[in-house]
Write the structure tokens for this entry.
Amino acid sequence: MEQVHSDTVNTMKMEEGVTQSLGLKSKLTQKLNVSTRHLKVINHHFYRSFLHLMGYIAAGAGLWILMHWQFGMVFPGNVDVPNERLRFKDIWNAAMYIVPYCFWGMATKHAAIMIITGLDICISEFELFRLKKKLAK
């Protein structure tokens, strides 16, 4: 027993007709426009990650210098620290290393984002080059 379906609207044939009517140049132009918009978005993410990277590196370095300087001023050399201030010294000693490393960790994340985005920019630029070359033919 065979099933017969009435094909009143053949979508495949309609799509073929539309794509043939568009022509190769208009399809390439459309792809070029889409790729250009995609590249602008990617460049924006790259620039924003670069700014965040520089900000986190500067914040980490600034905090490292500031906290070490303050620690050296409050607890100079190997001076004996009273017992009530000993816990404070230990916490500060740990914080002056942990806080800058947290900022540098966030900077590392943005460096990785920049590397991945940079590769995406290279691929997109190559795709644009190929599309422009095809469009020029």
Summary: The chain has a mean pLDDT of 83. The radius of gyration is 30 Å. The CA atoms of residues 10 and 16 lie 10 Å apart. The chain is about 85% helix and 0% strand.
